[in-house]
Amino acid sequence: MTGIEVRNLTKRYGPITAVDTLSFTVRPGAVTAFLGPNGAGKTTTLRMMIDHVAPTSGSVTICGRRYRDLPRPTTVVGAVFDASAFHPHHSARDHLRIYAAMGGFPDGRVQELLTLLGLADAAERRTGGFSTGMRQRLNLATALLGDPRVLLLDEPSNGLDPEGTAWLRSFLRDLADDGRTILISSHVLSEVQQIADDVVVIRQGRLLTAGPLHELTGTAQAVLVRSPDSAELSRILMRHAQAVRADGPDELRVRGLDAARIADLAAGQGLRIHGLTSEHPSLEQIFLDLAGERTNG
Ligand SMILES: Nc1ncnc2c1ncn2[C@@H]1O[C@H](COP(=O)(O)OP(=O)(O)OP(=O)(O)O)[C@@H](O)[C@H]1O
């Protein structure tokens, strides 16, 4: 068993239900983005994965076991939560040495990680003067000391410049390609679109959707059809499409059929088409649609 399995996970803080019967799985060999607006319950869920927060009910297993039952948890899971939790007077090397000693990892691992994370030149500098990007790298280095197969990152691109974000993307890609399980939380959907293989979307502690990103964007693709015969055309398309919606007097939004097929179906019935536009919605739009559907439903 590899990866992460979340089953009926619930966390209540008095009257607030931060996480509500949440179930999903995170597979190895992929980058999974854990998405939701502020306050959706992402951090609480990540913290429950590593026993920082006790669930009210439900469970999480990592590589088939609960965190507390893992023999050496830091060799299985690395987690990065806060980019500022360093002793400001310690150098990057001191910081890693202390954590290496606590985890029982060889000292040589410290230099390895400083190099891997591009911190070798800054190794002797005090972390108090580190930029956000350097802090993120040092945090990642700390989480990777035990060479874990699972990596949990809470908002890793927060405060990173475009160069830092691009670096992080390729770094995480390499880790995933190596068969590791990578779960990153984010509320910046445009960034995630470039990095994630899979997405898990939550809102108000509940699951909205989970699965491969391309499936989510694929099913959200639509064709906007302009036709003076839209009523008749709508009846024909409904037999073949996933969804047909009237968007205006002469406009239909069609899901589950491509533009060529729509044109062929219309031609077959002698119906006029005045315009066909394929839409590729952003993750942002998909997310808003999902949230809206849930609210309306
Ligand atoms: N220790 C706590 N005590 C009371 N309420 C809490 C506590 N921790 C979190 N919450 C509440 O639980 C809900 C989920 O918070 P959480 O931090 O998990 O969300 P999030 O998705 O990570 O949001 P953000 O992107 O803002 O970090 C929020 O309503 C929050 O106020």
TrEMBL record:
Keywords: ATP-binding, Nucleotide-binding, Transport. SUPFAM superfamilies: P-loop containing nucleoside triphosphate hydrolases. PROSITE patterns: ABC_TRANSPORTER_2 (PS50893). Residues 4-229 form the ABC transporter domain. GO terms for molecular function: ATP binding; ATP hydrolysis activity. It comes from the Bacteria. Coiled coil: none annotated. Pfam families: ABC_tran (PF00005). Belongs to the ABC transporter superfamily. This is ABC transporter ATP-binding protein. It comes from Nonomuraea cavernae. The lineage of its organism: Bacteria, Bacillati, Actinomycetota, Actinomycetes, Streptosporangiales.
